[in-house]
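Input chain follows. Return structure tokens only.
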Amino acid sequence: MNLLPSFVRPPRWERGVRHPAGARPSPAPPLCSNVAWRLTLQILRSTCLLWFLSGPSNAQAPVDPINVQSADRCRQILNDSLVDFYLPHCIDNQAGGYFEVLDDAGDFAASDKFLTLQARHVWFFSALARANIRQPDSLQAAQHGYEFLLQHFLDADRGGYIAKTNRQGQPVDDRKHVYPNAFVIYALVEYHRASGNPQPLEQAMQLFAELDEHCYDRKFGGYNELFNRDWTLATDASQPTYIGALNTKTYNSHLHLLEAFAQLFRETRNPLVGQRLHELIHINTLTVKHPEWPCNIDGWHPDWTIIDSPRNLRASYGHDVECIWLVLDAAQALELPTRPLLGWARRTGDYSLTYGYDQQHGGFFYTGPLGQPSDDRKKVWWTQTEAMVAMLTLHQLTGDPVYRQRFDETLDFVEQHHLAEQGGWWANLNPDGSLGTD
């Protein structure tokens, strides 16, 4: 059985993210991250946090010019490296939906379409529209992807959304995984907010109900993850498992279920959504935490016993700092005080700073062994963006200047090294910021 967690699998060609010249893309694996979605979320959130920090509630008090400058830098990065790069170039006007890969020349190219990527793009364009960025084009782009999801990924007979289609929208993999379906909920809620159309929110609630009926584990808690089209558990070991190993539960999937349910609860105040969100806070702060070290572990058996393998017993610094701000945001959605979570948040963040932060160049490494410095020292784009939001969040809550310093240093590293001159971001870099080939 493959017990290798998703975040320590061999390096992969990131969809929608530039790679160094000379690096050759192998066949792209499922569910690779989409840079536009994640970076937009982090940059918009960082900008909001910086503006919050820059101006006290007293309108007569002076604003902090350093925070204003950093917010402007974040917004410039968003516009130059993401909005201009993706809109309209990633829109597949012939077949519908969005392009997901770049060819060797750096241009968007045709490929199969994965549910995770398509849903994330819907969120991306909806978020731009809500921020009044490139309207009305951004809202039209969101509608374009929303319609493709309903026409080609939605299983109208059994519920849920299938994993993969070809470019034209014909099923390639009709199984269903909770991870990409969580992003469908996330996208539908955001598109509802951007468009004012009530139907996407109703569809998000319908999907939540289907996941609760078919995937929620009423014996052990949490969610079983991978299913056939008829909602029977997937058992074919010859097929790709997407996130985690077959018949396991993962930190990664439960973290993004929490992320999606927090937004769904904000819009609906549905009691069952709130109940599941409470449980996901417990899972992400207690259940998946390593018993000795203040970091979370990705792979777990269905009864929440840990998968005891060297490749699983590792820290993913990006996921852990991401978990900090997503859990705190979920608590705020539930109108819970965040103070009881602050000790957990600081211990988790400080662990990643101790073992996964690059004191010499700035930025965070990728993964590492428990209680030891990182031995997987590449700089991955999404790890840096999650870290920036987490460091700002911790600084906002604690006033500790160390967290603000680490944000500034990571932002400097991103500006100097991750941004590609042609647009987009370099996916993986060496510790010093030079281009790697992974």
